[in-house]
Every structure is written in structure tokens, then in C-alpha cells.
TrEMBL record:
Residues 1-19 form the signal peptide. Keywords: Signal. It comes from Chryseobacterium gallinarum. Pfam families: Por_Secre_tail. Residues 306-384 form the Secretion system C-terminal sorting domain. The keyword Ion transport does not apply. This is Secretion protein.
């Protein structure tokens, strides 16, 4: 029995270690107002704090994209890479970097957690004003399409931050408006819709968690926010300031007021406290995971699965654990025009298969992966997005 348990323990240990490496937070000091302390790793499964990556007092070297040189920043202003007013963070898995914006600034920064190098993207698209709380960027998340998205308090600007070659480009997608069904739970009202954070799903929709605990689903295509409900199971005075998806596919929320982290079920918006119990001051959360997207950590529970569906490492895994699936299988990948771009033969014995399929020949974009059995019957279709 021990021989069986030991490999399983190593597998779970590996999953947990990866989950910790892919979950990040902007941490604050124990003060009544926003006071940036550091970027740090967070255990998104246990709700505990981990390694500190970069802090308010760290030595920094900032490279300006527009000026193509290292610059000296004014530390007495809000427009610098270690500003006290940090409230928007995203994790860009395509280059393993943290993307963030100070709340009173239009500047966009990209931090390499390993080298501690910072790139500044001078953003002339956002209309952030220090005296207008509506304009402050407080929500940010990586979209399933590989771009970074940021939104201000009132939803009057949603920014798309994308990389074209070696340069970052910022686009203003427009104004997010309330769905007619929202009623008194307005996305644009300070009491019900301001602040908080957002996460993305596998269809590139966003779920915005307002500081009030209200949850809205935002369609980027329609630029409309639909009220889903209010989080249950958190203290009445809990201010929701950060949200991110953990390795189990559940949303984790955090507060700037010094409180434990909670895991939220999006189906019923019921929250349960994570076991860590630390009184963390968290201004924002970020991870590499998405709502409704199976990750490598949960794929072993499926009978038939392809993962990841957002591909940034030139391969996918095919996992089968179903005694009714046997013999030779044909895996075919189609581009969105219907053209066959990859064929791959697989053989299943005793209903078990774990195989890696290389995708190095594919350029960035969306594709359909189809698996057919020996009779030609399609047993699985899955959309994937190649981002690197």
C-alpha cells in the first residue's frame, strides 16, 4: 500500500508547489489607508502567505518602453513603480511576469519576479485622475485570449493590454453599462459596484467582485455587466479587494482590511474560509487559472480530458481513464477555418492513456482538438488557445 501512496503523495506535492508559484498578491501594511508593502506569493489552496518577491523598499531599475532606456522615477509622486497606492495586479503566464498599475496613475508596469527588472509602459489611453475616484484602475486580470484587461471603478474604461512583438499596446474597449435587470445593484454605483477585482473564464468573460461583495458578469463583446448576486458566508464588514482563481478552479477572495482568505463557489456564491487564517492585508490577487477551465491539477479526475486549453508551452496532454475507450485513436487539430493542421495517432490499453502531444508547428490562435475512435466516431471536441 505504501508503494502506491508515495507516488500519489509526490504528485499532490508537485501540484501544490506549482499552485503556490502561480498565485500572487499585492500585500499592504497594517494601516487604515492603502499602503503598499510588497508583491508576494500566496498559497491559493490554503490561504497562507509565501515568499516576498518585491517590496516598497526594494532597489529598482525601471526601463521605459517609449524612451527605450532606464529612467529615474519621482518617488514623491503617484507615478512610480513602488507607489503606495497599488490595487491592480495580473499574472501574464506567457512570460511569467506580474503586470500592475498604481491606483492614482495611468502607468503600466511589468515586473519579472526572477530578475526584479521592471518595464514601464507609458499609457496615454487611460484617463486616470488623482482627484476622480471613478477613474482609478482597481481591477485587473489576464484574459483567456492572452491579453491583460484592466477596469476602473465606475466601468467607464476597460483597457486591453496586449503585446505586439516586443512592445505593449493599450486599447480602450469602451464603457461597461448595467444590464437592465440589475436594478438597485448597479455596477456603476459606488455603494454596490465599485472597487474589488476581477477574474476571467474560458470564454473570455469576466467576473467582477465589487468591494461590497456583489458579483457581476461582464461581457467584453457587449460591454455589459449583469448582477449575479452577493457573496454569502463572509463577515458583514468584509471588503472584497482581491480575487483570483486557484488551482482547483475556485475563486479566492481577499480583503485589504486584514482578514483571512475565502474560497467562493461561483454557482451559488457561497464562501468558505480557507484554513490559513492569517490576517492578511491584500489589495489585489492574480493567478494563471481561469473559471470553467480544467487545469493540470484537476485533470486526473476526468475520464477523458485535454489540458491545458490555454497553451503557452507548445504541448497539450491527453488523459483517458475509461475502460470503454480502447484501441487506436485519431487526434486531429483544426484551425478556425476548418483546415486540418495536425494529425496524431494514439493507442489506448486497458482504458488508460496519458500522452503529451507536441504543438510546436502551431502559430498563436484558436484551434479545435478532435479525438475519434477506431470507428471514426468523435468522442471529444475541445477548443484550445495557443498563446506562444
Amino acid at each position: 500500500m505504501k508503494k502506491c501512496l508515495f507516488p500519489l503523495f509526490l504528485l499532490l506535492l508537485g501540484i501544490d508547489a506549482r499552485a503556490q508559484q502561480d498565485f500572487f498578491a499585492i500585500s499592504g501594511k497594517d494601516t487604515p489607508s492603502i499602503n503598499f508593502n510588497d508583491f508576494r506569493v500566496i498559497d491559493g489552496l490554503r490561504g497562507t502567505s509565501g515568499e516576498k518577491i518585491f517590496g516598497a523598499d526594494s532597489s529598482s531599475k525601471v526601463f521605459s518602453q517609449s524612451r527605450n532606456t532606464i529612467i529615474a522615477e519621482d518617488k514623491n509622486s503617484y507615478n512610480h513603480s513602488q507607489s503606495l497606492t497599488m490595487a491592480a495586479l495580473a499574472y501574464d503566464s506567457s512570460n511569467n511576469s506580474l503586470v500592475y498599475m498604481p491606483m492614482f496613475s495611468s502607468n503600466i508596469y511589468i515586473l519579472n519576479p526572477k530578475t526584479k527588472e521592471i518595464s514601464l509602459v507609458e499609457n496615454t489611453v487611460a484617463r486616470v485622475s488623482s482627484c476622480d475616484i471613478n477613474s482609478h484602475i482597481t481591477r485587473m486580470a489576464a484574459g483567456y485570449d492572452g491579453n491583460i484587461y484592466a477596469m476602473n471603478n465606475a466601468g467607464t474604461q476597460i483597457l486591453q493590454i496586449s503585446k505586439k512583438g516586443s512592445q505593449y499596446v493599450v486599447n480602450d474597449l469602451g464603457i461597461v453599462k448595467d444590464d437592465v435587470s440589475n436594478g438597485k445593484n448597479s455596477f456603476t454605483a459606488m455603494e454596490t459596484g465599485f472597487g474589488g477585482d476581477m477574474v476571467a473564464d474560458a470564454d473570455n468573460n469576466f467576473y467582477v467582485f465589487a468591494a461590497s461583495g456583489n458579483v457581476f458578469k461582464v461581457s467584453v463583446k457587449e460591454l455589459k455587466a449583469k448582477f449575479l448576486g452577493k457573496i454569502a458566508g463572509i463577515p458583514d464588514n468584509y471588503s472584497v479587494n482581491g480575487s483570483a482563481v486557484n488551482a482547483k478552479g475556485n475563486v479566492v477572495i481577499a480583503s485589504a482590511k486584514g482578514a483571512p482568505l475565502y474560497e467562493v463557489d461561483l454557482e451559488n456564491l457561497q464562501a468558505k474560509q480557507l484554513p490559513g487564517g492569517e490576517q492578511l492585508h491584500i489589495y489585489d490577487l492574480a493567478s494563471r487559472y481561469f473559471v470553467n477551465n480544467r487545469t493540470a491539477s484537476t485533470a486526473t479526475l476526468a475520464d477523458l480530458e485535454i489540458y491545458p486549453t490555454r497553451v503557452d508551452e507548445h504541448y497539450i496532454n491527453v488523459h483517458i481513464n475509461n475502460k470503454n475507450v480502447k484501441g487506436n485513436l485519431q487526434l486531429t487539430i483544426f484551425d478556425m477555418s476548418g483546415k486540418n493542421v495536425i494529425n496524431h495517432n494514439m493507442s489506448v490499453k486497458s482504458g488508460i492513456l496519458d500522452q503529451k502531444v507536441e504543438l510546436k508547428s502551431l502559430t498563436n490562435g484558436a484551434y479545435i482538438v478532435s479525438i475519434a475512435d477506431e470507428s471514426g466516431k468523435v468522442i471529444l471536441n475541445k477548443k484550445i488557445l495557443v498563446t506562444e
